[in-house]
Amino acid sequence: MLTIGELASYAGVTVRTVRHYHARGLLPEPERDRSGYRRYDAGAVIELIKIRTLARAGVPLARVRQLLRADEEEFAAAVADIDRRLCAEIRQRRLHRAQIARLASGDHLALPPEVVGYLDRLRALGIDERIVRVERDGWILLAAHSPERVAEWAARKRRQIDDPRLVAFYRSLGQALDQSGDDMRLVEATDELADYITQMADEQGEDYVDDTDLDPPLVELMDARVFDTVPQARRLIELLKRRGWTGWTKLERIPPHR
Length: 258
Hints:
Structural class: mainly alpha
Low-confidence stretches: none
Order of helices and strands: HHHHHHHHHHHHHEE
Number of domains: 3
Strand content: under 5%
Distance between the termini: 101 Å
């Protein structure tokens, strides 16, 4: 016969757990011996191991009580159902592990391959990583909002990045990120951007500058992300307005005053 401590040790639980199972009516309490101690037999060990195993498998204690009272057929069916649930949880956890691995690998977590390729192209061109992160975050929001248009937008961005003038702007902006809002490098970067988009609008039309047709709330959300990540972008927009353009995610020409 076993003491409560020995019983707990056999089943791999604590004495407190045994007492908790007593209180919940899962494990019957034996009578006390002449010394006033409760003594447990082998049947109690087996019953406690059943309770422990079911509880660790995530079965609620109320359901454990029902299973302990079930006949062999009902118990076997319930165990099979628990096994199916555990297998589903294992598959889900494996999926989560794969996602975590993708997260560790960088941009692949939430972006399609064509966007990842575009971001890799920016890095290969020597664009400041802060600018790449801004682009990446914007693409994550775009992909969540309009996944069916990502391939179209990505192809357009790849064509644009082939233009040395846009690359020069990105590089100038990267050099200006560590400077104050009035630094000449930020002013020069703004001049480059204004010249580029004005020329593109004149040559290929206003739609070439902005054809994304995004909802205003999404534009506001994306702009806020840019300004939080790269505060100098807010100053760049202020400077850009003086040159006839406004916006970051959605570029628009400012109509001339009459």
